[in-house]
């Protein structure tokens, strides 16, 4: 390995190999079933979002193999954990034993089989944890509004929804007959979003999505938010003629009224015989109807 390759960290080599192949971090995460923040942490050599060292070593080797890189070289040059050295990457069979010798070869065999058994247990635990993590859908809860159906003030035009889910989960809030609103949970799983409301009934369906695994929450939560219509807001109507109690025979009846511009007045006349007659009038720009 040249001095130039040694000077490049393992994370930078992973990133360079991925970019050279034109592969996105999201595609790598989906292919290897490793979460996007962990892939970013491996490339940045930042342990902030990485698991225990033994798991990180396994993921480094898996990522390096995926990119056709030397896994042990990547582990040896990765600086995310100061304690990670080539001694972690390779088994040093030539290192003299510092344990008391009891029977020479028998003790070496016991040590070898014990190490293999311990490694098998660690691998099994890691694989089991990964399977459980990816099999479980993201959780979802809504803290506010807590009630399934809520009646708000007539002047309420938006409401802040808050809840919890998995870290970095995508929250989708779909309005019946309206747009879809999204929010991203923070590192602790908390999320909040301002939801615009219409007057009347607002029916919301809320789900959580894990972008790393593509799995959605096991159930869809719902909230119904009712914003009352303002009272006293109907059109006004004043009947000017004919006057109350007037009797008109064998002559046209002139209807005069006052309302708001553009309002439609519907008049139903019921004769002594025959079917009712319905006539409609539209108020002019001054509100007059005649």
Structural features, described:
The protein is of the alpha+beta class. The protein folds into three domains: 3-92, Orthogonal Bundle (434 Repressor (Amino-terminal Domain)); 140-227, Immunoglobulin-like; 238-289, no CATH class. 31% of the residues lie in helices and 26% in strands. It has eight helices and 14 strands. The strands form four sheets. Strands 2, 4, 5, 7, 8 and 9 form a six-stranded mixed beta sheet that branches. A hairpin with a 4-residue loop joins β4 (170-175) and β5 (180-184). α2 packs across α4. It is rod-shaped, with a radius of gyration of 37 Å. It starts with a helix and ends with a strand. Residues 1-5 and 83-103 have low confidence and may be disordered.
Secondary structure elements and their pairing?
Blueprint: H1 3-7, H2 10-20, H3 25-32, H4 36-44, H5 53-66, H6 71-77, H7 86-89, H8 105-135, E1 140-144, E2 149-151, E3 158-165, E4 170-175, E5 180-184, E6 190-196, E7 200-210, E8 215-216, E9 221-227, E10 238-241, E11 256-258, E12 264-269, E13 277-282, E14 288-289
Parallel strand pairs: 2-9
Antiparallel strand pairs: 1-3, 3-6, 4-5, 4-7, 7-8, 7-9, 10-11, 11-14, 12-13
Helix pairs in contact: 2-4, 2-6, 5-6
Quick take:
This protein folds into 3 domains: 90 residues, lambda repressor-like DNA-binding domains (434 Repressor (Amino-terminal Domain)), CATH 1.10.260.40; 88 residues, Immunoglobulin-like; 52 residues, no CATH class. The protein is built from 8 helices and 14 strands.
